[in-house]
Amino acid sequence: MKITKCKSKKCSVKCKYFVRYKTRSGDRKAKHFHSYKLAKEFYNEQIVLQETGMLTSEYAQKLTLNEYVTTVPLTRGNETTQVSMQQLYDKHIKNKLGGYKLRDLERKDIQKFMDEDLAGYSPQSKKKIKRMLATAFKYASSDGIIVRNPAENVIIEGEQRLVEPHPLTPEQLKEFIALWDNDEKLSEFSNVIVGLAYTGMRPAELGAVTWDDVDLTKRTIDLNKSIRIDSKGKQYDSSKMKTARSSRVLAIDEELLARLRFRKTTNPSDKYVFSSSQGKQLNLGNFRSRYFKPAILKTELPIERPYDLRHTFGALMWSRGVKLDRLSRMFGHSSYTTTESWYGTWYREADFSGIEDLEKWKQQQA
């Protein structure tokens, strides 16, 4: 670690010195300063931090969130995850909360940031940002800079999932499919809607299905991969799926079978089953913004996102008498309890199978 004169053309004319140092995670960093005095203060502070693990009270008083996060990891994930989280921080937090002094940040500041600056973002996105803030504050607390974590009791509206989903009825589903079939623009992806509703696949699973995975004679789809997003926001197919049970074989319903046979006949050179009209892989982000959102604006049906069609599949299976354990395997849930937490209230009925077995046993003994 040392203080060096800055000769970089990328820096402003006011930048005179920079300090090279290592963070706790072992990453090499460089911090730039307008004067030697400021550079020396930071240098001395890093010496103390490396030797004692504690920041001096004088420096801690002035330390901003942006300055502090350069010294601690925002996630314990791999390199790709770390890059992704840093991009998320730079995009949403750096210019909003980053300039605050760590000791001045309060729970109400974080709550206001979540409610106002992140208004319109999904609870899942807010939760990820909140987790990143909580990680930074946890380190700050262990370093003695702050007393308590201001992100700990921040509330994210809609963070808790509804125990019971609200799927489309069979009649509503037919109406929704007809909307896609009869619209010149939407019809390009009407098979996607049918596929989601009649297989229960996650959108990322459906988009990765290739014709090699489909057997139209046996009427099966072998799910063995899923779409994932890299640090640059690009899609790629990965064999690493959401859960260990996500890799599964699904039966093809008659409603979907006819459409797939027609698609295979008319587009024999396509690689992906649920592709665009040009044969390209379904882009999940574009599909939601350019097709699905306009579609739900054209109808009064109670549907808000593609995932609601997965719930609709659950309702269809329930109406056909499919047991909860079988439904769990169809969904690729990590455990039976996950399925039960979502759909258990639909299955509030007596199970006579055990009694019937007991009665048969009694009859055999008689």
Explain what this protein looks like in three dimensions.
It contains 15 helices and eight strands. Helices cover 46% and strands 9% of the residues. The model has no long low-confidence stretch (mean pLDDT 84). It has helices spanning 36-52, 57-62, 65-69, 79-92, 107-117, 123-142, 170-181, 190-199, 203-206, 254-266, 284-297, 308-319, 324-331, 336-343, 353-365, and strands at 2-5, 17-22, 28-33, 214-215, 220-223, 226-229, 235-238, 248-251. A hairpin with a 5-residue loop joins strand 6 and strand 7. The protein is mainly α. A three-stranded antiparallel sheet has the order 1-2-3, with helices on one face.
Q: SSE layout and pairings?
A:
Blueprint: E1 2-5, E2 17-22, E3 28-33, H1 36-52, H2 57-62, H3 65-69, H4 79-92, H5 107-117, H6 123-142, H7 170-181, H8 190-199, H9 203-206, E4 214-215, E5 220-223, E6 226-229, E7 235-238, E8 248-251, H10 254-266, H11 284-297, H12 308-319, H13 324-331, H14 336-343, H15 353-365
Antiparallel strand pairs: 1-2, 2-3, 4-5, 5-8, 6-7
